[in-house]
Design brief:
The chain is α+β, with helices and mostly antiparallel strands. It is built from five helices and 16 strands. Strands 6, 7, 8, 9, 10, 11, 12, 13, 14, 15 and 16 form an eleven-stranded antiparallel sheet that branches. The longest helix is centred in the N-terminal third of the chain and has 16 residues. The chain is elongated and about 65 Å long. The protein binds nicotinamide-adenine-dinucleotide. Nicotinamide-adenine-dinucleotide binds next to helix 2 and helix 4.
């Protein structure tokens, strides 16, 4: 089985990567292949795993991800830095086990050209204003839903619902559900601008279109990346056909993961 190691530049991450590489080279069943891997091991935190996801985006439907965390507890990172030998053992006994999560497809059209930009997000996409408030019309399935004014909007995947979306009051969605969530970031509500004020959960046969005010300068993000600074005509969000796969060598129940990350209460009944 071909393995790629994708590490951040931290000292511990580098040490873990060296150890991983040595163990893989010693193994009869595993080999290093950074170009066309079956498994991508991210070493760092959630941010590193997000970077690994985007690094391998062209072949994301052909790989499975594994996260080793070398910092504080991560959401996508199941393995600890001192568990390299256990992980190698799991890789050697791999039988293709995986868990897949929905992804967000973002289609952007620009005012200064006819080209269309299509990207995938693992966590979320946000649309904000560089300075001042964002003004934008929100459409669901091509029907105008509301006029938004405020700091911005956050459109997240179920696995991203525990990230930025949670900070802005969105609901946490079990990633076994195929859904998208639209959450407001500090909306202004008055007689002119009236938004629902609650997060929206979008089903697989629906899509959301956002048309920002052309006189302002909206900034689009996709996970930790800022997309181009070109003037945006419209952004369409829907659930992508592709999904992301994680090698599921150990199973942590989703709500247990949420509890571990945010509450920290050990309760056997969860
Ligand atoms: P970062 O280093 O600022 O990390 C942000 C935090 O988000 C880290 O603690 C990370 O562990 C956590 N995180 C990332 N994905 C998560 C997930 N799916 N569930 C729970 N926690 C998660 O930035 P980064 O490492 O480059 O990560 C980028 C992510 O940061 C973005 O995708 C966005 O979700 C998040 N973010 C959050 C806020 C906020 O909460 N106000 C603001 C900006 C970005």
């Amino acid at each position: 089985m071909k393995i790629a190691i994708y590490s951040n530049s931290g000292e511990l991450s580098k040490r873990v990567s060296v150890k991983l590489k040595q163990r893989i080279e010693q193994s009869q069943r595993l080999e290093i292949d950074d170009l066309s891997p079956d498994i991508v091991i991210s070493v760092g935190g959630d941010g590193t795993l997000l970077s690994a996801f985007h690094h391998y985006i062209e072949i994301i439907d052909q790989v499975r991800l594994v996260g080793i965390h070398t910092g504080h507890l991560g959401f996508y990172t199941d393995w600890r830095d001192y568990e390299v030998d256990e992980l190698i053992n799991s890789l050697e006994n791999d039988n293709g086990q995986s868990e897949t999560y929905p992804l967000l497809e973002i289609t952007t059209k620009y005012l200064d050209g006819d080209d269309t930009d299509v990207v995938l997000a693992l966590n979320e996409s946000t649309i904000k204003e560089i300075s001042g408030t964002l003004t934008a019309d929100v459409y669901i399935k091509d029907q105008k839903f509301e006029s938004f004014r405020g700091d911005g909007l956050c459109i997240s995947t179920p696995s991203g619902s525990t990230a930025y979306n949670k900070s802005v009051g969105g609901a946490i969605i079990n990633p076994s559900l195929k859904a998208l969530q639209v959450s407001e970031i500090a909306s202004i509500n008055n007689r002119v601008f009236r938004t629902l004020g609650s997060p929206l959960i979008i089903s697989p046969d629906e899509w959301v279109k956002i048309i920002p005010d052309i006189h302002k300068k909206a900034v689009l993000t996709c996970d930790q990346q800022v997309r181009s600074g070109r003037p945006i005509k419209s952004i369409e969000y829907k659930i992508a056909e592709k999904r992301v796969a994680f090698a599921q060598y150990r199973h942590t129940h989703f709500w247990q993961r949420v509890n571990n990350a945010f509450i920290g209460v050990q309760d056997d009944s969860i």
